[in-house]
Design goal:
The protein is mainly alpha-helical. The protein has helices at residues 9-20, 44-52, 69-72, 81-88, 94-98, 123-145, and strands at residues 2-3, 31-32, 76-78, 100-102. Strand 1 (2-3), helix 1 (9-20) and strand 2 (31-32) form a beta-alpha-beta unit. The structure holds 4-nitrophenyl phosphate. Residues 3-9, 32, 36, 117, 119 line the site of 4-nitrophenyl phosphate.
């Protein structure tokens, strides 16, 4: 799960998907394309909204996406088109590129909608981020478990 800062959207996506899959069977992680928040906790508002839906994401720490992630993961979900461009810049070949998907295409196939960045807004934006990621992760979990 990849966003820009790895403190707002992708930590939520990581926690939500983890909660929908059997523990220990899959490696789910998140990262940011930027380096501003390496080692940081998720944003307080992401922790708060996750807690509201009974998820604890406070064990996560920020890290930056790197080329090695193409080898460690089968699918790389990005939150928006800017994340997509930044991740694709690090791809080494077509196989890497094929791994990168816009997460909301799981619910709106082919439409390339962004998960809006809630960072500069209030808690309501985080709530709506949670809901759209929850819907997308339902589809992802369904596909993976099938
Ligand atoms: P995120 O939100 O990409 O959903 O984690 C952001 C968090 C921090 C910044 C940008 C986006 N920032 O510029 O510090």
């Amino acid at each position: 799960m990849v966003c820009l800062g790895n403190i707002c959207r992708s930590p939520l996506a990581e926690g939500i998907l983890q909660s929908k899959l059997p523990s220990g069977k899959f490696t789910i992680d998140s990262a940011g394309t930027g380096d501003y928040h390496i080692g940081s906790l998720p944003d307080k508002r992401s922790i708060e909204v996750a807690r509201k839906y009974d998820l604890d994401i406070s064990n996560q720490r920020g890290r930056q996406f790197s080329e090695a992630d193409f080898d460690r993961f089968d699918i790389i979900y990005v939150m928006d088109s800017s994340n997509y461009e930044n991740v694709i810049k690090k791809a080494r070949n077509d196989k890497d590129i094929e791994k990168v998907k816009m997460i909301l295409n799981e619910i709106y196939p082919g439409q390339n909608h962004d998960v809006p960045d809630p960072y500069t807004g209030g808690i309501q934006g985080f709530d709506s981020t949670f809901k759209m990621l929850d819907e997308a992760c339902n589809e992802i979990a369904k596909k993976i478990l099938n």
